[in-house]
Each structure stands twice: as C-alpha cells, then as structure tokens.
Design brief:
It is a single chain. This protein is mostly helical and 164 residues long. 69% of the residues lie in helices and 10% in strands. The protein has one domain: Arc Repressor Mutant, subunit A (Orthogonal Bundle). Strands 1-3-2 form a 3-stranded antiparallel beta sheet. The protein is globular, with a radius of gyration of 18 Å. 11% of the residues are buried. The C terminus is likely disordered.
C-alpha cells in the first residue's frame, strides 16, 4: 500500500506542476495554495504563521509569497474572529474557479474509475487513507520531538548527513 500511496503522490505532484505552469504559478505558490485549500476544506483556515510553518520558510518569504498570491487574485486575508490580531488565509472565488476549471476533468476521470466500486470498498479505502495520513502526522510529530528540523528548501541534506 505504501508503494501505491507514493505512486498517487507522485502523479498528483506532476498534475500540480501542470496546473502551476499553465497558470504561471511557482511551485512554492502551488504548495501554499494546496495547504490553504486543504485547511479551508477541513474548516480550519490557516493563519500566516501556520502556513509559514507548513512551508518551512522565513517570515519575510511567506509574507512575500502571500502578498503575491493576494495580488494575483488566488487568496485573500480575513480577520480571525477568534483573535483580531491575526489573519486567516482564504481562497478567493476567482482562484477557486481557476482550480475548479482545471481539476474538474480529473474529477470526471476519478468518478469514472471508481464507479464500479461498492460503497463499502470506498469507505474502507477512505479509512486506509485516513490511517496513512495519521501515521505520517505521527511520524512528523516524532521527528519534531527528536529535535530534527523540518526540511528547508535548498538545503543539501546529503552533505550534512555525511559530516555526522
């Protein structure tokens, strides 16, 4: 199953790159949009600090990235109703429409591919995906507890590992 998950992840990454190229969005911008969409879909929109943590970039870099995505019409900032000092990052309707237009054909292919599967199989598959996501989250938490830093873009880990 792990190999299957890696294959789905790799294919998803390639499709995301097509979206990014077609809509003149950088890879970092696309990953930020993905984090924002996942959080918003879960009903827990991200703050700037939370997105920075997920992207593992500096405060200046995340501010620049978010400002650029706001200017291009993909996202907006809204005051956090729980803490007015913070802002929540939300998808703009125009950005959501752009993503919807691009990814709708994929939805058609997915529905067609899954049409012959029984609901109990789909429910079981959902449980598998949720269990795998939880295991990955647990592993990430263990890495943080062990004091390992999250990956940083551009850092050459192979060189660092050889020095140990």
């Amino acid at each position: 199953m792990s190999a299957d998950m890696r294959a789905v992840t790799a294919q998803s990454d390639r499709i995301g790159r097509y979206f990014a190229r077609r809509h003149d969005v950088s890879g970092s911008d696309f990953h930020a949009l993905l984090h924002i969409m996942v959080a918003e879909t879960a009903g827990m929109p991200l703050t700037l600090a939370q997105l920075r943590e997920r992207m593992d970039v500096s405060p200046a870099a995340i501010t620049y990235l978010v400002d650029r995505m706001i200017e291009s019409g993909h996202i907006r900032r809204e005051p956090d109703p729980a803490d007015r000092r913070k802002s929540l990052l939300r998808y703009e309707q125009s950005g959501m429409a752009l993503a919807h237009d691009f990814f709708s054909p994929l939805g058609v292919h997915l529905r067609r591919a899954l049409a012959d599967l029984h609901d109990t199989d789909l429910i079981a598959a959902h449980r598998v995906f949720m269990a795998m996501a939880e295991a990955m989250s647990t592993f990430e938490g263990e890495l943080l507890v062990q004091g390992r830093k999250p990956p940083t873009a551009g850092r050459n880990n192979a060189t660092t590992d050889r020095r140990r």
